[in-house]
Amino acid sequence: MHSHYITKYFSIDNSIPTSPIEDILTNLKSILDYTKNLEEEEEGNDNKIIELNKIQEKIKTCENILRTQNLNEVPVCKYRKFEKVYNMWCLDQSEKKDEQNSFLSQHPNKKSVTSFFNMHSLLSTKFQDQYNDIYDWNADIELIYKRNVFISIGYKLLYPLGVLETNFNTEILKNFLLKIYSLYNDLPYHNSLHAAQVAHFSKSMLFMLDLNHKISGIDEFCLHVSSLCHDVGHPGLNNFFLIKSENELALTYNDSNVLENYHCSLVFKTLKDSSCNIFGNYPNNIFITCKKNIIRAILSTDMKNHFEYISTFRTNREFIDYDNLTNDQLWQIFCLILKASDIGHSTLEWKKHLEWTLKINEEFYLHQ
């Protein structure tokens, strides 16, 4: 990312202590400045040696930060600043690239996608006009992201959080998204587009509930993983049908949250592959907590437990301090966010709602 974006969009608030990632960005900006000075110096000039020494010193500083600092402790406000940097960079790239030349336009069949295309070239030319509405509940995500909505939203939501949390490998993120995407079946309703819409709704609700600046990056990261994966591998048949027909899945999961347990299983089987393990750089104790929270969120989408969740929250909501949420309270709210997002199309304008309703009706006819 060029220093232009760092200086223009990542202005450091001196009232807030800097984080390790900001120290690295500051050093990288200095390296860019020294490199520019180096290019202007004549060969053999003593100043050239001085500039080279400065560059080496800054590189060593970055290495020391990476070795000694805990990048997991990035303040929440820093995520939002970085998110803005990243979004603005995407906007700039979308102006320069013709989406007709993007990798995906050459591979309209999703099953033929074998490597990750350049996400930035996928962004619609209309993206900039709609940037202010990108997290609006009613935003038309198909219009904004065009062809591969799932990959685009997944990358947009997870990349800014992941890159600040750990020594993040973007190739692993790409592999993870492609793998999960490939596991979604071509169904009328429970497909990758539905998952992308639920992820979009979840992000939108964080803003509407004013939680966006109150939660940690790792918690938000897990929420987005849950929303993107909550229906992965869905066969187009509901739990009731699977249980009554004594389907293999129902036998495997003992008639309990059959599909939801199956979705969780696919997520963590995918993460077992080191090339797809987006939690690979986290300490084991943090990963165990993440796993527990993701499973909890996905299991909550079983409509059989819907009224139990609502009743429990109504009982507890008067005793919740929303400025000092415990982890359990936070994930109780996250589960409700995911549940609301899962059926969120019912709140869209009539045309869109009708479109999704016809899709679910079409899928019901698979129960034969």
Q: Which regions have little confidence, pLDDT < 50, spanning 5+ residues?
A: 1-18, 69-74, 94-132
Helical segment count: 17
Q: Could you say what the CATH topology of the largest domain is called?
A: Catalytic domain of cyclic nucleotide phosphodiesterase 4b2b
Strand content: under 5%
How many structural units, i.e. domains?
Answer: 2
Number of DSSP-assigned strands = 0
Provide the structure class: mainly alpha
What gap, in angstroms, lies between the N and C termini? 53 Å
Q: Report Rg.
A: 23 Å
Which second-level CATH architecture of the largest domain applies?
Orthogonal Bundle
Shape: elongated
Q: Summarize the amount of helix as a percent range.
A: 55-70%
**Main beta-sheet annotation:** none
Can you say what the CATH homologous superfamily of the largest domain is? 3'5'-cyclic nucleotide phosphodiesterase, catalytic domain
Order of helices and strands: HHHHHHHHHHHHHHHHH
CATH class assignment of the largest domain = Mainly Alpha
Q: Quote the average pLDDT.
A: 76
Short recap of the structure:
The protein is mainly alpha-helical.
Describe this structure in words.
The chain has two domains: 1-70; 141-367, Catalytic domain of cyclic nucleotide phosphodiesterase 4b2b, CATH 1.10.1300. It is mainly α. 61% of the residues lie in helices and 0% in strands. The N and C termini lie far apart (53 Å). It contains 17 helices and no strands. Mean pLDDT is 76; it is low at 1-18, 69-74 and 94-132. The protein is elongated.
